[in-house]
From TrEMBL:
<dbReference type="InterPro" id="IPR050087">
    <property type="entry name" value="AON_synthase_class-II"/>
</dbReference>
<dbReference type="InterPro" id="IPR004839">
    <property type="entry name" value="Aminotransferase_I/II_large"/>
</dbReference>
<dbReference type="InterPro" id="IPR015421">
    <property type="entry name" value="PyrdxlP-dep_Trfase_major"/>
</dbReference>
<dbReference type="InterPro" id="IPR038740">
    <property type="entry name" value="BioF2-like_GNAT_dom"/>
</dbReference>
<dbReference type="InterPro" id="IPR015422">
    <property type="entry name" value="PyrdxlP-dep_Trfase_small"/>
</dbReference>
<dbReference type="InterPro" id="IPR016181">
    <property type="entry name" value="Acyl_CoA_acyltransferase"/>
</dbReference>
<feature type="domain" description="BioF2-like acetyltransferase">
    <location>
        <begin position="643"/>
        <end position="781"/>
    </location>
</feature>
<protein>
    <submittedName>
        <fullName>7-keto-8-aminopelargonate synthetase-like enzyme</fullName>
    </submittedName>
</protein>
<keyword id="KW-0808">Transferase</keyword>
<feature type="domain" description="Aminotransferase class I/classII large">
    <location>
        <begin position="63"/>
        <end position="405"/>
    </location>
</feature>
<dbReference type="Pfam" id="PF00155">
    <property type="entry name" value="Aminotran_1_2"/>
</dbReference>
<dbReference type="InterPro" id="IPR015424">
    <property type="entry name" value="PyrdxlP-dep_Trfase"/>
</dbReference>
<dbReference type="Pfam" id="PF13480">
    <property type="entry name" value="Acetyltransf_6"/>
</dbReference>
């Protein structure tokens, strides 16, 4: 894509809008709320746990995290009520000064449960914020499982202020973890691996025994495990899944449990076998010191629950839940429902793939009388949307069976109604795909997928896609010749051309796609890219992935032709989606990117429903040269302020420049221009891409559709200090695709502004109808009369690993 820059007092490189992630999450959650599956309010004057009131209906409740149902136990309720009567609704003092009278008994009971020193915290989020910065020393390192709970990841951000390395590995990827341990062991004291005991979405678990074996191999390895979803329903005295698996808590582990969720009360518990560390965290643990303590009712309810955990009754409760889990697993095994991970936890996840399928399925189940949760981005990758079902002691066998029956009936209907099938869903979750899965039924459509523009009619392509950018037939032939057969893998792209016509040969949809190696931080903050580029000095392909994109990294503009009025356009769009999925899977792409769309609500909704998330890109700029105007007429249309800038910063300096328009360059000139381009590329980490091979520039010099605008000072005419690499699109659109600069003169001579001006002059002299000024630098280009338009990309990644890893940096 054309990479230019914008102006501040000093010229700096272009940056994209990096509130993208929060904006994207807001859009996803807002869409789900509009579909009636999130941000709901429970209704009714009482609550039993077995049912929940939603939208005027009583639904069987399959979304609770109170797996043992203790939140409805009369003993906990009575204890909470009595505590309020005796001590009030709260005890408004810091626990550092004094704890209210019920705290001591609770701490003794919880300590007895674990047989280890413990700390009670207000909740697990505040507990992590207090414990992690206290436990992790400046000489330590942290490695996160990329699916560890957000609250753990968030607490680790505090460590960056102390220059403690926070790394990340793919979920349960022990080989990758060992590589990270080896790397950090040379420089760091302890290496903390942070993970969940039971993961909240899929219900899968950490490989605890394998981790213990790894710690025997590496004595520096310590563990910080969040087991809040494993609490109470497993383990001796209900101490959780981790304790159930390990039996004894190792000295090199900190364990978090919860007094909320299954425990039935409020608060969380940190178990810390290291007495010295226990004292340090308890004495001054940040939020543990300054946050309010648990309310008397919560402490009393937790104490009553701890009494149940310390009695034989806890095992009866666990067994009742276990029977329900086994019953549910057995019923699911007789269906074709795609259970993402079969395990012994009370958490189940049925994959739907696309968000709109998830919305449809959840709403169907609610209409049948069942409340379930939707798993949605960012908790899961956007194309791994699914229905999260939890089993509790509240659920009876008859309603469990009825839920499975309803799911088996409505799941295929939800798939059909939202234009997908089991094969696409299973492929999204890397599950075995049925032999009959994932087929496209073209009906009366003619679908052509070609691997070269030479197999596509020139006139037809130019009529559909050739009006702008380097996207006409000749421009794409230039790209094919330039980005194939190169030495480095990042310089070799695979091209595909999709044309969909109706039965009479009328085009409905056309686009071209490329697959190539991208830097994973292409749209990340500049500071992150700077850090990663240091690593890439000795590991060139660190954090890079194959990406499938509409268009290419060389082109900018509308990469999709769509006849919006055609009655078969929706079918054509679905075929495009299927084609992208198939190509991405076949070519090993980890990410699919749909680029350079305007604020198009209709297409945007379609893409988001198909499992893409929207990110805002730099603005696109274009100049319209209507009426074959001359230069004076063009600039007379600028505002008074912009004309003043134009005279002062451009016209005043023009006499100092020698301006050359070259159709081709000799070898020495070309090397000079490549060096100028390299200056800009190295400084433009706001859109971090691989540089282009020399072969591209050599091909420009040999191609009649390209020319170069060179700026040099008249005092040194043989040394260019600025250049535009310009493509002439079919005599209609002038495309200054790339810029090269000597930064010595950018501020003193306003070199970039002079290049923009000379580009406009050249396009007018050639009689072109417009200029595609590319992405970014909108402030500069607007001052010279360019129209600025918002642009968006829609991204679908195979998982959230890279997104979350970059979030730790």
């Amino acid at each position: 894509m054309p990479l230019h820059f914008r102006d501040q007092t000093q010229m700096t490189m272009a940056k994209i809008k990096h509130n993208n992630f929060l904006d994207t999450v807001n859009e996803v959650i807002t869409d789900a709320a509009k579909q009636g599956v999130l941000h709901l309010y429970a209704e009714g004057e009482n609550f039993t746990g077995r049912t929940i009131g939603v939208g005027g209906n009583e639904l069987y409740h399959f979304g609770t995290t109170g797996y043992l149902g203790l939140e409805q136990d009369p003993r906990l309720k009575s204890a909470a009520i009595a505590a309020i009567q005796k001590y009030g609704t709260q005890f408004p003092l810091s626990k550092s000064y004094i704890s209210h009278p019920l705290y001591n008994a609770l701490e003794e009971k919880i300590g007895h449960m674990y047989g280890q020193p413990i700390i009670i915290t207000k909740n697990s989020t505040l507990g992590h914020l207090g414990a992690i910065p206290s436990a992790v020393d400046d000489r330590d390192a942290v490695i996160l499982d990329h699916q560890v709970h957000w609250s753990v990841q968030n607490a680790c951000k505090l460590l960056k202020n102390r220059s403690i390395p926070v790394d990340m590995v793919r979920h349960n990827h022990l080989d990758m973890l060992e590589d990270k341990i080896k790397y950090h062991s040379r420089k760091r004291n302890r290496i903390w691996y942070m993970a969940d005991g039971i993961y909240s979405m899929y219900g899968d678990s950490a490989p605890l025994h394998e981790l213990m074996t790894l710690s025997e191999k590496y004595s520096q390895l310590h563990f910080y495990i969040d087991d809040v979803h494993g609490m109470s329903w497993a383990g001796r005295r209900g101490t959780g899944f981790v304790m159930d698996q390990l039996k004894e808590l190792p000295d090199n582990m900190l364990l978090f449990g919860t007094l909320s969720k299954t425990f039935g009360a409020s608060g969380a518990v940190l178990v810390c076998p290291d007495k010295k560390m226990h004292h340090r965290i308890r004495t001054f643990g940040g939020p543990l010191t300054f946050s309010a303590q648990l309310e008397p009712a919560s402490v009393a309810a937790a104490s009553a629950s701890a009494g149940i955990h310390l009695s034989p009754e806890i095992y009866s409760l666990q067994n009742e839940l276990k029977e329900r889990i086994q019953y549910f697993n057995g019923l699911l095994s007789k269906t074709d429902l795609p259970l993402v991970d079969k395990n012994i936890s009370p958490v189940f996840y049925i994959g739907t793939g696309m968000p709109k399928t998830g919305y449809n399925f959840v709403n169907r189940l609610m209409e049948e009388g069942f409340y379930v949760n939707l798993g949605l981005f960012p908790a899961v990758p956007v194309k791994n949307t699914g229905v999260r079902i939890t089993i509790s002691r509240h659920n009876q066998r008859e309603e469990i069976a009825a839920l499975v029956e309803a799911m088996a009936h409505h799941y295929p209907k939800a798939l059909e109604e939202t234009g997908t099938d089991p094969g696409r869903v299973r492929q999204a979750f890397a599950m075995a795909v049925p032999k009959t899965g994932a087929k496209v039924v073209p009906g009366d459509l003619d679908i052509r997928l070609e691997n070269s523009i030479t197999k596509v009619g020139k006139e037809m392509w130019n009529n559909l896609m050739g009006a702008h950018g380097v996207m006409d037939w000749d421009g794409l032939l230039f790209l094919e010749n330039s980005f194939q057969g190169n030495d480095l893998k990042e310089h070799n792209w695979e091209f595909r051309y999709l044309i969909i016509r109706n039965g009479k040969g009328k085009p409905i949809l056309a686009t071209f796609m490329t697959v190539g190696l991208w830097k994973d931080d292409m749209l990340a903050k500049e500071s992150i890219s700077k850090t990663l580029e240091q690593t890439r000095k000795y590991d060139s392909y660190h954090l890079t992935s194959r990406a499938l994109s509409l268009g290419s990294l060389f082109t900018e503009g509308n990469h999709l032709y769509l006849d919006r009025k055609h009655p078969l356009k929706d079918r054509a769009l679905n075929i495009l989606m299927w084609t992208l999925e198939t190509l991405g899977h076949k070519m090993g792409a980890k990410m699919t990117v749909l680029r350079d769309f305007g604020p198009d609500e209709e297409l945007g909704k379609f893409f988001k429903d198909q499992g893409f998330v929207r990110f805002q890109m730099p603005n696109s700029c274009a100049v319209h040269l209507t009426g074959r105007m001359d230069v004076e007429t063009y600039f007379s249309r600028l505002s008074v302020r912009n004309r003043r800038h134009f005279r002062k910063e451009i016209l005043a300096f023009e006499p100092e420049f020698q301006v050359d328009i070259l159709a081709s360059c000799h070898r020495e000139q070309l090397q000079q221009l490549i060096a100028l381009y390299g200056n800009v590329h190295r400084n433009n980490l706001g859109l971090n891409t691989f540089s282009f091979p020399q072969r591209v520039f050599e091909a420009m010099s040999d191609n009649p559709h390209w020319e170069f605008i060179l700026l040099s000072l008249k005092s040194s005419p043989q040394t260019p200090i600025g250049a535009m690499f310009c493509y002439k699109n079919r005599g209609k659109t002038y495309v200054p695709a790339f810029v090269g600069l000597d930064y010595t003169y950018v501020t003193s001579h306003y070199t970039y502004r002079q290049l923009l001006y000379q580009t406009i002059k050249r396009a007018i002299a050639l009689g072109f109808y417009g200029i595609d000024f590319g992405l970014t630098a909108s402030f500069e280009k607007r001052k010279l009369g360019a129209e600025v338009n918002e642009r968006f990309a829609y991204v679908q990644a195979s998982d959230n690993y890279v997104l979350e890893l970059l979030g730790t940096m």
